[in-house]
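User: Could you check the structure of this?
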Amino acid sequence: MPISQKEILIKTFKSNKTSVVGLLMAFGVVTIALIAPWISPYDPIAQDMNIQHAPPSWAHPFGADSYGRDQFSRILWGSRVSLVVGILSVLFAMAAGIPLGMVGGYKGGRIDNLVLRFIDIFMSFPIVILGLLVLAIMGPGLIKIVIAIGVALTPRIARLARGSTLSIKGKEYIEAARAVGQNDGKILFVHVLPNIFGEILVMGTLWVATAIIVEASLSFIGLGVRPPTPSWGAMIRDGLDQLTNAPWLSLFPGLAIFTSVFSFNLIADGLRDISDPKLRG
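Assistant: Sure, the predicted structure tokens are below.
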């Protein structure tokens, strides 16, 4: 009995054991973020100075911070911020960058030159620096962080979409679509996009991990979500002053960032196997 394309994709992904581990890790992080209000043992912003800098214990598995807030509860709630920023910023960048790159690569000429100049200008700034510039204009806040990181990632996705479009725009099926009178918009979104999206999805997964790191970096310097909303980057910063006396204040948020970033990197490795016909075969 012939194997369907879906079964081939699943089998290819499952053959990469590390990617399966990454998927399970990411599923765990996402699940924790979704059910944080129900599994959090304490209010993440409730203060109790009687347990200030309390070490890890049965009552407080990850200890308590400088304001007597339960670290475990704050890490659970902080996962929501990191995942929302990571996923939404990449979706924002894809929505803006993919059409821009496809149009530039497909049209060529002056339009492509304009797209290239846009990409060159914005990619001359590191992601964190460009995010800082956007936040300096708009101010801190969850939605503003999503926009800032999304803007910083847009030229990178546009460059990838442009390069992928250039590699296939001369293919026979594109020429056939032109020959039967299909307009450019239909060709781009019916014939070009499905054939380049696999590569973009792989990189998009990696950029989710990058966005989580950038959000933590911006929160670390005070440009993340407004206190007292829990954020992993801000929790690491708050624990720096007590690094020798209470290292758990920065250790556990750092491990949370590591776990999330590592899981998305492993998933991207499995998606690369799926998108590569040689590995899939």
